[in-house]
From TrEMBL:
The keyword Cytoplasm does not apply. Coiled coil: none annotated. Keywords: Chromophore, FAD, Flavoprotein, Lyase. This is Deoxyribodipyrimidine photolyase. One of its GO terms (biological process) is response to light stimulus. PROSITE patterns: DNA_PHOTOLYASES_1_1, DNA_PHOTOLYASES_1_2, PHR_CRY_ALPHA_BETA. FAD binds at Y211, W251, E254, L255, I256, W257, R258, E259, F260, F261, D351, Y352, D353. It comes from Myroides marinus. It comes from the Bacteria. Its cofactor is FAD; (6R)-5,10-methylene-5,6,7,8-tetrahydrofolate.
Amino acid sequence: EIVVFWFRRDLRLCDNVGLYHALQSEYKVLPIFIFDKEVLEQFPNPLDKRLTYIHDAIAGIDNQLKSFGTGVLCFHSTALEVFSVLTKEYDIKAVYANEDYEPKTIKRDQQIGDYLGTYSIPFYLFKDQVIFRGGDILKQDGTPYQVYTPYAKKWREQLTNQHLYDYSIKLASELFYSINCAIPTLESLGYTHGVNGIIPPYVDLPIISNYDKYRDYPGIDGTSKLGVALRFGTISVRQCVKIALKENAVWLSELIWREFFSQILYLYPQVENHCFKSKYEAVQYRNNEEEFKAWCNGQTGYPIVDAGMRELNETGFMHNRVRMITASFLTKHLLIDWRWGEAYFAQQLLDYDLASNNGNWQWVAGCGCDAAPYFRVFNPTEQVKKFDKDFVYLDKWVPEWRELDYVQPIVEHKFARERVLKAFKQALGTD
Ligand code: FAD
């Protein structure tokens, strides 16, 4: 008789709500992880560094659990197949996991819950990924917020110590079902291990306490770089919020943006493929494939755009300010559908998260909730003057930008600005 704890995007042993509850049950816990074939299909690049990240995180947990006579039982299959095997091999009393709010995972979890139900096995899901999930923060009239500022105000008001409870538990051999298993190599899953692997999450307190001063300058190492850790749950959001409350209110507001977009995707799942404001579907994008390629490869002739794309392609990270500039350039200067850019970021970003990526792309494109007005078109040259005036970031990523034979600008700024304003006005009927 056992209970199963299923790791998903919560790859840590400490302060993990679902694991805490599994360990509190009267049965021994069998920890599992599924390299889900249906999920991996979306990540076809064998060099995808996120697989190294996940693999290293699982290996770390497995290693820690070895000292308690257990490990992480891994599968390379679909969730349904895994549970059909497990229910035959073990006498399972319950399955524990943490909630996930993406439309596809919600559907999958419903399917698994139904399947386990046929064996009368309860499937317990816990809120772990966020402080407040979709529907937890509502306006007085019971409807969700679609604008960030009042949402964030209510979020702060509603926060209590209870939300920041630490679910860490003292681990011991008798809590786990003893197994002796090896986790599969990345190569056996069809991926290549990144050169150095990926370092464990590290909270740099001086960076966080100075966050408000330096966060906007891509040439300065002024942001936490915790996006990927939050994405895969190698760090607990409760721990981050506790640090933010102590160190920096502006950093807290970023964590609230994350929850804002999480609730938008949960409550309005259609945003995955459609504009939040549907009238923006009428925008006639040009969708020129050559120009899209130039943007992807950092060859637009605008050094800040090219620097951002090259940072992304090389490292899997891009500074937030530059994410805004490159996204604005794609949608406004080149008039290419935000969904193309969103899909490209989804392939490249280590911290890729459907809710945050989609929400931010729609924000930049002007079609999202609480979006930047469509007539705000970032001027890439002015952005450099404001945020990289000593060209530290440009010199790092596009060292040839000062040379005469550097790529010619793909489109002239003033012309592009007028073109996009016309296209949006036409679409919105304000011409
Ligand atoms: P910090 O600046 O230290 O912020 C701390 C954490 O707060 C981040 O790790 C992240 O979890 C959260 N956060 C910060 N800003 C935002 C924001 N605007 N929206 C939502 N959460 C935020 N963030 C992602 O996590 N995944 C994405 O796929 C993603 N795609 C983006 C696409 C575009 C076009 C833009 C403009 C922004 C996107 N962001 C995304 C938001 C933001 O750029 C990154 O979260 C941030 O740059 C990550 O760096 P950091 O970890 O150093 O974060």
